[in-house]
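Protein in question reproduced for absentees:

***
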Amino acid sequence: MKEDIDHVTVSVPIKDLWKAMASEMRHIVPHVLPDIVAEVELLEGDGGYGSILLFKFCPDVPKVTHQLEKIVEYDESVYEIALEILEGGHLDHGFLAYTTAFKLTQISETETLIDIKVLYETKPEHNHTPGDTIKATFHYINSLEKYMLKDLS
């Protein structure tokens, strides 16, 4: 497995951010990415470790209709969550395996550091540039921060 790692600081309190990225993810993502995700359906579990989520993409999203993900890490005590793609999405675009992990660390009462790790394996014929996997994740985090700041104000 290869990995891309990076981090970003957001102006959102850690407890609010954790709630949005973990326990309330399926309700928040369609509002954060309205042009990409139409709905997130909980297929199995309670939204925590081992849960399976179905991300249904908007009709305008090219070459993909859904992404099935399993929460493979979920630890509220240290603010860590990881999601592994089981079907669709990135797996339809040259990847054999794809897992995104987040670790949140409080910087101040209003700022949180997000450490991001994407573990992936590509198909032999797939030409992948290291760091590209993080781009979609940064888009999500930037959109989430904007959504939450608008909601918190």
Notes: The radius of gyration is 15 Å. The chain has one domain: 2-152.
